[in-house]
Write a structure and sequence with these properties.
By secondary structure, this protein is mostly beta strands. The chain has two helices and eleven strands.
């Protein structure tokens, strides 16, 4: 964790996954406050000024999935969007804060579909185990949910990622994300970088995983 940052975690007693975790929620969730004075992790859009970085696992382990990204506001596991980082598109079309998240399936990492290096972000990348979602809050230009829902172009360049515990995930990104759902919003270009610790591995987050 960067010096001067703080974190919250819900890894559960003795490193076990919380028994209360339910489908759609996050488990082994780690959230680090960005240190004041660090270089801005987001260079585009200009009105997104992240205060935290986060990483965890979706608790529904039918498809073990790592979630990591950047957000404004408080470090919370469950926001207003139905317990997930975003929840349904309908719930989150006009959310309360900026949040960018990458959903990466463990099988795609282990199988080589998601690599250390450049990964194409497109509407087809969801089939390869990579989904991107970015939300813009109400009260600013073009609020709503964006991602590789109906189209996208660009790269997620992964510097480090693993399904094991205490992995320091590193990545930089530059991609254009389309609007999700109905509406006339223009696509959003999202550029930046992050580093965050995944405290729990697949074996801990999904009992019986590897």
């Amino acid at each position: 964790m960067p010096e001067g940052s703080s974190s919250i975690s819900d890894a559960g007693p003795s490193g076990t996954a919380p028994s209360s975790a339910s489908s759609g929620m996050l488990t082994f969730f780690e959230c680090e406050a960005l240190v004041f004075g660090e270089s801005a992790p987001i260079t585009s859009p200009g009105d997104f000024s992240p205060t935290h970085i986060f990483a965890g696992w979706l608790a529904d382990c039918s498809t073990p999935t790592i979630v990591f990204g950047l957000s404004e506001g408080e470090c919370v596991r469950d926001d207003a969007c139905a317990g997930d980082v975003f929840g349904s598109d309908e719930v989150c079309l006009e959310p309360a804060a900026h949040r960018l998240a990458y959903y990466v399936e463990a099988a795609a990492i282990l199988g080589g579909d998601i690599i250390v290096g450049p990964n194409v972000v497109s509407v087809d990348s969801t089939e390869s185990g990579l989904t991107v979602r970015y939300r813009r809050p109400s009260g600013i230009d073009d609020p709503g949910l964006y991602g590789n829902c109906t189209g996208s172009d660009g790269l997620l360049n992964i510097e480090n990622i693993s399904t094991t515990a205490n992995t320091r995930i590193g990545a930089n990104f530059n991609h254009v994300l389309s609007a999700c759902g109905d509406g006339d919003n223009l696509a959003q270009t999202v550029t930046g970088s992050l580093q965050v610790t995944l405290t729990g591995g697949q074996a801990e987050a999904c009992i019986g995983g590897s």
